[in-house]
Batch of 2 targets.
Target 1
Amino acid sequence: MKFRLLNQEERAAFDEDFKHFLIANGVSNEEWLEMNEKNSAKAEELVAIFSDTVFQKVMEKMKFLEMRAKDSLLVFKCTKEEIELIGINPKSPEAEVDLSTPESIHESLSTKAQQLQFFKHKKAYSKEREIEVFEMIENGCVPSHEAFWMALDKSIQ
């Protein structure tokens, strides 16, 4: 398995897609119900294939990620070849900045920019792109927007 099994909530969101997946793989509803009852390993194998397919498609579409904390903002641009990072941290632990919400980020950038340090970095993926993006999300990153990336990039130049 490349990623992980979809959980119950995720599976529910993709219920119609899963039905189409089963049909495309020649499994009728009756066969699926019987498989769950008599051959749970085979049923789980189908769920694993479906889960990998879903995660692969979602990760391919993911272009921007961010991770916010009171004292740290990391925004990532995930291109096909490399991952770019814009990071913002307070210059000192005494700096009274909050980088955990859109409002506090705006406030910090507008009125306390002199208390912040900015950095940019690029690196090639060390694993397959989609796996790295997936791992970043599993470790707390959330989807972000190109407009946010562009605004930060412009503000640090």
Note: The helical segments are 8-13, 15-24, 29-38, 40-61, 102-111, 129-138, 146-155.
Target 2
Amino acid sequence: MSHDAIVLLREDHKEVRRLFREYRGLADGDGGNGARHETVQRIVEALTVHTYLEDELVYPRIRREVPGLTEEMDRAKEEHHVADLLCEELSRMSPDDEGYDAKTAVLMDAVERHIEQEESSWFPQVRATLGRKELQEIGERMQAVRETAPRHPAGSGMLHRIADALEG
């Protein structure tokens, strides 16, 4: 398996898209609340790990070494913040709750736009600027951190940093 950071990010994207298709199939058919809830919880976990890795390992490096992408990194970080908030809300909801399916749909739409932007716009720039060795290094670090990365949105992103600041 490749440890190239972009390859790893694309694999995460592929898994998230698969989970989105699974959820849509359950929501459109006779999926039952238990299966929908389980799939949403897997989406929340996958996105929480992915955004944590990007925010903590990938984006800071890109910000330092690919100055032409500073605005894109700012926007991506804010998109992650919105996704974290939606994931946090969904993690506390049940499929019976009003707005559950709508909130899930908004999350999926936002994430799909985010993925498209990353893959079509800045992945090629990052690959051209950083090169293979650097991408391998970032990817190896991602693999090392993935096992201990937060799996619940309350343990990642801005909410986690606020809680840490209040406790500290």
Note: The chain is about 80% helix and 0% strand.
